[in-house]
Amino acid sequence: MKQPIFLKPIFQERIWGGTQLSDTYGYQIPSNKTGECWAISAHPNGQSIVRYGDFEGKTLGELWSERPDLFGHFESDRFPLLTKILDANDDLSVQVHPNDEYAKEYECGELGKTECWYIIDCDEDADIIFGHHAKSKEEFIQMINEGHWDDLLQRVKIKPGDFFYVPSGTIHALCKGTLVLETQQSSDTTYRVYDYDRVGQNGELRELHIEKAIEVTTVPHTATKVEPTLAKMNGSTITTFVEEDYFTVYKWDIESRAELVQDGPFTLGSVIEGIGTLITSEGEFALQKGDHFLLPNGVETFEIEGQLSIIASHPNHKGGTQQHVAGTAKEMANV
Fold first, then answer.
1. pTM of the model as a whole
2. What does each C-alpha distance from 35 to 138, 158, 245 come to in angstroms?
3. What is the CATH number of domain 5-216?
């Protein structure tokens, strides 16, 4: 099969969610507290569905099980990645995610969660929580126990177009007024460290996971600097943001036309702006803002025409030759 598979996202309501997923992308959301669009997902807690074509109505998880050829027989017991768009209409809880080894032992075989964020849009003077100031585990525990959150948590100013790599073990939180595309391991495990003393729908304080969070948090915080690399062609730009153990993430800014080479076993794409056409050997496929698609294995080369921006990713095998941050751009274009 050499044509893209277009996927219908599902939506998750969150107490910090809003209406940006409808306002910006025109999605039909379940309420004005919709926080997450699970755009490309085969996770049991929410699976994308094929919109049309030969596999119309099937979940991505069913395709993964029934048609391993579409994914290059990628060596994993589950679909490895999850693409989300998050509407942080209010501050998210301060949280941390475990690595694979910890999650496998303590979360019933779940994957760990390394993720990354592309800031689609944000309020002026918006920030995020990214890391902490504790120099030792003892100091980390003491500051948590004494509630010294302003001293503990590290805040970073953000602007549209910023990119953050968030390995497992990193204390983090999106804050009010941000719209973010997230690429992550296919995991739904989160340990809340601090939640501003908010109550849930049951009227009680939301659960925290302090003990597990202390066990998995990296102390002292180590920020991995992202150094994007750019490849330009015919007025279009391919940016490689990160290339690490689990995934490589790109941004394709197409000004008129680009000839591209698929560099992974399969590729995930999310159109965050604009309109255009995706061309493979099997035909032409319309693209518009808010579309999400999967390029299966076998689509070796393809073209994109129009004026649009796409966040694309593909999985990598942990333990391979990948670097934590992109060093040199891959040859993505036939120029």
1. 0.93
2. 34, 19, 28
3. 2.60.120.10
